[in-house]
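Regression test case RT-17, inverse folding.

Input:
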């Protein structure tokens, strides 16, 4: 898995690239505070090499909890800024700081 941030100079936006590498899953998404935990808004595209990838515009000046969902199974991003316990999910969530 990978996470890449590209801050725009002209807008208070960060283009964040989320990648799930070499996965055998059929469908994947990134869900989090930045998209209302809506998998349809966080759909990742699958490539021939097995990677899932998506680029999203995220407002800067905040931190966001998020997770990946691959075929209904949740997982965290090892390269996230940090992880935090979430009582609602009864699990740790990855955190993105932009």
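Golden output:
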């Amino acid at each position: 898995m990978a996470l890449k941030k590209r801050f725009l100079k002209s807008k208070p936006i960060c283009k964040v690239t989320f990648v799930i590498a070499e996965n055998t899953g059929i469908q994947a998404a990134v869900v989090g505070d930045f998209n209302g935990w809506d998998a349809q808004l966080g759909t990742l595209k699958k490539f021939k090499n097995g990677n899932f990838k998506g680029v999203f515009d995220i407002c800067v000046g905040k931190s966001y909890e998020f997770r990946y969902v691959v075929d209904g199974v949740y997982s965290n991003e090892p390269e996230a800024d940090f992880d935090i316990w979430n009582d609602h999910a009864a699990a740790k969530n990855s955190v993105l700081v932009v």
